[in-house]
Design a protein that fits this description.
By secondary structure, the protein is mostly helical. 78% of the residues lie in helices and 0% in strands.
């Protein structure tokens, strides 16, 4: 894989861009990575490639903010279920046509981008979260295992809790870190990891970190509202492209 200059350039450029997006808005590395790399690679390989950059950048995000202990105490059922159910979704990798999974990935991206652009943000009270948390965690885990995308419906659920901006970004970091670890175990169990993919994933780490640092720098200087709109419009287009090519 790395001996093909075009593929290597696609990997480096994708993780630089995905890291930059994550640095600005706190999410998007797996989504952007999969949306671009599934154009040149199969879905399972693209999922494997994002593991090391995703885990490292998400762990960084999960440890910063000062809200980690409170988030785990209050929302551990959501995080726990979202982690253990990844393996259920992973069963589909060897049983379902990858074209269908690619279409599902595209539809999830389109749905997430569309909801975000529409400005729809429901509110979930603490009493409702006790019931909805595990349910949303289960859906998020299954979709993660099937498509490698961590955001639907987990990020929508966390948004609905009314967390502060810093707490929300850290909560997403915790969710994504746990989901990435579970996805790595799931792909390994399905025989979808190899030394070549592991090396390629490691190669993607430096540009992802560089992009994330640059994105955090830009977040302090650009209008986040404008950037989010451009980002979600781009995701909408990429999701539509994936669905059309599935």
């Amino acid at each position: 894989m790395l001996d093909h200059p075009a593929t290597l350039a696609a990997i480096l450029g994708t993780f630089l861009l995905a890291g930059g997006v994550k640095g600005v808005i706190g999410l998007g590395l797996p989504t952007v990575t999969l949306a671009i790399l599934t154009v040149v690679l199969d879905l399972a390989s693209a999922m494997a490639l994002l593991l090391i950059p995703s885990f490292a950048t998400n762990l960084w995000q999960a440890l910063i903010g000062g809200h980690g202990r409170a988030l785990l105490r209050d929302h551990w059922p959501f995080f726990a279920v979202a982690t253990v159910t990844v393996a259920l979704g992973g069963l589909a990798l060897n049983r379902v046509d990858h074209g269908l999974l690619r279409m599902l990935l595209g539809l999830l991206i389109v749905a997430y981008a569309g909801v975000s652009l529409a400005g729809w943000r429901p509110r979930i009270a603490a009493a409702q979260a006790r019931v909805l948390g595990p349910a949303m965690g289960a859906l998020n885990g299954v979709f993660t295992g099937m498509t490698g995308s961590f955001v639907v419906p987990g990020v929508l659920y966390l948004n609905a809790l009314g967390l502060s901006r810093d707490a929300l970004v850290q909560a997403m970091g915790i969710l994504f870190t746990l989901a990435t670890a579970a996805l790595a175990l799931t792909l390994a169990g399905a025989g979808r990891l190899s030394a070549d993919l592991g090396l390629a994933s490691l190669v993607g780490l430096p540009p992802a970190i560089l992009g994330m640092a640059a994105g955090q720098w830009l977040r302090k200087r650009l209008s986040e509202a404008v950037f989010r709109r451009v980002f979600f419009v781009s995701l909408l287009a990429l999701g539509g492209y994936i669905v059309a090519g599935a």
